[in-house]
Each structure stands twice: as structure tokens, then as C-alpha cells.
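Predict the structure of Beta-lactamase-related domain-containing protein.
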Amino acid sequence: MGTFTGPSTQPALHYTDVSTWALGSFAGTAGAVIATAPELGRFLSALLGGGLLPPAQLAAMKTVVSAGAGTGIDYGLGIMRTDTPCGTVWGHTGSTFGHDSYMFGSADGRRTMVIDTTTDTELNAQSPGSNPIKEAMAAAVGTASLTAACTMFGEPIPAA
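Done. Here is the predicted structure for Beta-lactamase-related domain-containing protein.
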């Protein structure tokens, strides 16, 4: 385990190398898929573009239910629809120890975005206040996601 220090003498973030951990048993199928960011983008583009499933199956997959009022997220069969200020994107996120992935694209799969981080920013978002540095990193991922979505749709990026 390593320690990164911030401006003070107190440790800012503890680092545990998890690159050799077998995640398949812990994370189930979430840890069983290993892909690069470009591979995730190609997969999502092919899926949303109709290259992997017959139209009826893709339509069934994209039939969604709300994740809850105010979340802006709806879930289908293995895919989520998220409304951004610039347009609606389809995709999924995933987290295991030390890594997060976010892949989203336009409804037709012609535009995609993939964000990978080497920390568990998504898990930290579920327990606010637990680590200010991880919260800042999660906010940066949120900003990057919004910037990518707006760029995909040719829309201006909303002011913070």
C-alpha cells in the first residue's frame, strides 16, 4: 500500500495496488469483462447502431423504467438511459476495486464516449463526505462526462 500526501503532512489518499487481484469471484460478471477504452467504444457503437442484436431485441433492451424521481437515469435490460442538459445518452458504468468505467453513446451509436479512471470515484459518490480528494475526482469525472456529452451533440457546455 502506498500513500499520497496532500499539501499538509496528513495522508491525502491511500493507494493499494489491486492490479493482480482476481476480480471475477468478487465482482461476478462485472469483473469478468476486460477491455480497453477504444474496445468499449466500438462495442457500444455496434450495440446501439444495431450491429449486434436484431431490431426487436435492441428495442426490448432499450425499454426502460425509472431509477427514481430526480435521478435522470432510466434502466433497460443491461443498459441505462441518462438525460444530460445536452441530450440523452445510452450506456453503462462499472466499478471494481481501483477502477471505474463509464461508456455512453447517442441512441444510434454514431457518437460514443468512454471514461476510465483508476480509482473508485463511483463507489465514493455513494458515501459523500468520506474522502474529499475522491469527491473532487468524482466531480472531475462528472465534468468530463458532461463535456463529452455536449460535444457529442454539438451543444454548448453549460456553465458551472
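Strands lie at 2-5, 11-15, 65-66, 73-75, 80-84, 87-96, 99-105, 112-117.
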